[in-house]
């Protein structure tokens, strides 16, 4: 089996509704995203011959993920999240945010990113999302 590995980083803040502790405040991370794409066979024809996937295509998809989250506040689509967005939108200029259907933990985000990449037709094997240099979550689908 072949595994391609590609990496990108983005800066993002999030709010974890209901979290008891210092991460209960709005705060940010420098996220590091490492994705692995698998293939048992290489393409046999065309411009991508002898490749699992074109690195350029993988980079393009990672750029989309970067642009979606980079320098944004990410909140869950619950009452607190919606109230927070409403207040900040009325107060801050150039306020950009993303509302997601889940609590934006490293676990949920890595699963969401995995599924976004899979939806592009990539044979994604694994997503590893670092929230700090020493803490990360790996998401894979059960074999
Ligand atoms: Zn955090």
Automatic annotation (TrEMBL):
InterPro entries to which the protein is assigned, alphabetical: 6-PTP_synth/QueD, 6-PTP_synth/QueD_sf
Keyword Membrane: no
EC number: 4.1.2.50
Keywords for the protein's UniProt record, in alphabetical order: Lyase, Metal-binding, Zinc
Gene3D superfamilies per record: 6-pyruvoyl tetrahydropterin synthase/QueD
SUPFAM superfamilies in UniProt: Tetrahydrobiopterin biosynthesis enzymes-like
GO molecular function: 6-carboxytetrahydropterin synthase activity; metal ion binding
Cofactor field: Zn(2+)
Keyword Lyase: yes
Main enzyme class: lyase
Catalysis performed (reactions): 7,8-dihydroneopterin 3'-triphosphate + H2O = 6-carboxy-5,6,7,8-tetrahydropterin + triphosphate + acetaldehyde + 2 H(+)
Pathway involvement of the protein, from the record: Purine metabolism; 7-cyano-7-deazaguanine biosynthesis
Family: Belongs to the PTPS family. QueD subfamily.
UniProt-recorded name of the protein: 6-carboxy-5,6,7,8-tetrahydropterin synthase
Organism: Clostridium vincentii
Species lineage: Bacteria, Bacillati, Bacillota, Clostridia, Eubacteriales
